[in-house]
Every structure is written in structure tokens, then in C-alpha cells.
Amino acid sequence: MIPLQALSNPAVAVSVLVIVMTFVIMAAFIWAFGKISEAPETDDHDGNGHGV
């Protein structure tokens, strides 16, 4: 873990933030790609006025 004294340096804080945000963005893209590649949910029980 990063000691609290190191966070007083703005460059260290920014670099840690950039690294963390990189991992967060990569995880978000992987999650979104997984949601896109799933089969779409079909909700046809009420018809919704389509195809009548």
C-alpha cells in the first residue's frame, strides 16, 4: 500500500489515479462487451402492440 506521506506529492497522486482509472475503464469495456455479446432478452408476453 502507498504510504500516506507519498500522497502529499501531487505527481504521485495523479499517477496513482491514472493507473486506477485505466483499470476501471478496462473493466468497464470488458463488462460492456460481455453485455453486448449476450443474447438479447425477449419480453414478448404482452405483445406491446408490435406485430399485431
The unreliable regions are none
Biggest sheet architecture? none
Q: What sequence of helices (H) and strands (E) makes up the elements?
A: H
Gross geometry: rod-shaped
Distance between the termini: 61 Å
Number of helices: 1
Structural class: mainly alpha
- The overall average pLDDT, rounded, is 78
Give the quaternary arrangement of the chains. single chain
Binned, the helix content reads 40-55%
Number of strands: 0
Strand residue content: under 5%
Rg measurement, Å: 22 Å
Pfam families: DUF3149 (PF11346)
Keywords: Membrane, Transmembrane, Transmembrane helix
Question: Would you mind describing this structure in some detail?
Answer:
The chain has one helix and no strands. It is an all-alpha fold and 52 residues long. The chain crosses the membrane at residues 12-33. Keywords: Membrane, Transmembrane, Transmembrane helix. InterPro entries: DUF3149 (IPR021494).
Topology of helices and strands:
Elements (H helix, E strand, L loop, with lengths): L9 H28 L15
Task: Summarize the structure in short.
This protein is mainly alpha-helical and 52 residues long. The chain has one helix and no strands.
